[in-house]
Amino acid sequence: MREVYFIKQNKEKWLGIEQVIQGKIKKNPDDLSSLYINLINDLSFAQTYYPKSNTTVYLNHLSSQIFQKIYKTKRVEQNRLLYFFKTEVPLLVYQYRRYLTYAFLFFTLFTLIGVLSAIYDKNFANIILGESYVNETIENIKQGNAVGIYQSGSTWGSTIGIIFNNIGVGAKLYIYGIAGGVGTLYALLSNSVMLGSFQYFFYDYGALKDSARGIWLHGVFEIFSMVVEAMCGLILGASILFPKTFSRFNSFKNGFKDSFKIFLSTIPFTICAGIIEGYITRHALKMPLILNLIIIFGTLAIIGFYYIIYPSIVNKKTNSQINDAVL
User: Which positions, given as ranges, span the membrane (predicted)?
Assistant: First the structure.
């Protein structure tokens, strides 16, 4: 069958599925399953006879969208909030997983730029971190208290301020994505360069080990969340630049909806990072080293599992459930 005839024969059906995905037409779970089976058949046909065609790309995208729609409309006997974190967000993270890879690559590159800048320009840390911060920290290092800066202020006051500041940084990383992702990359560059120069600054003064014992207690959740928030900004930017088969507005609407859900999932980690920084980091050098390591690697295991490993597990489980449902 010629591709033009294949498109003409199924165009109305595909447009109808788009209407369902956009919520303009309501379908029950059984009807959605039927649509999914029908669409998978069309996709298989297109992959066989038109493997490099835009039609195949379009049908693959449509299939992934209706796939999610099934599980959004399916009756689940569990708390909606639990479903959001347990199933909905992991499926979205899996769908957009390449953007998480991009965000990590840019983060690594920008952090290395910060390190190299601090190596070749001894005044770079002063410019990035501020003269007063650098001078105070140098005095703390001389006194054997590299994380002394975290011991100022009350615990609850510091915690609240830190949480709101970190949420603000994350919001900028995300919202700036509306400028085609360029704004997100700029915000990520600023924060990553600061991190790179910050860590080299401690290394240069022989306090890297002590600083790491304190900074990364809260830094794992904080920095990993920052990368995920950058991922969300890149998704938002890509939805504007690359609308695919959708109108630019509908592509942006879908991109915003999906990326905002992923962004919301970072808020609990950001809050936890603020609590750790406000209440625990100030005691970092007084704690047994083993406790520091348990917290650092424990937080890394939790957030790494949730955003890297768990999405694949949920996707496989969901695929299995759909196959069982349609057979």
Answer: 99-120, 173-203, 215-242, 262-280, 289-309
The verdict on residue 325 lying in a domain is: no
The model's pLDDT over 124-139, given as tens digits with 9 standing for 90+, comes to 988 888 888 888 889 9
Alpha-carbon gap, residue 142 to 56, rounded angstroms: 64
3-state secondary structure of 153: coil
Instruction: Enter the tokens of residue 133.
Output: 């911060």
Sign of CA dihedral 315, 86, 91, 235: negative
The two structure tokens encoding residue 256:
């915003």
Nearest by Cα to 17 from 2, 38, 1: 38
143 with 252, same domain: the answer is yes
Is residue 322 situated within a structural domain? no
pLDDT in tens, 285-311: 999 999 999 999 999 999 999 999 999
Altogether, the residues listed in the chain come to a count of 327
pTM of structure: 0.80
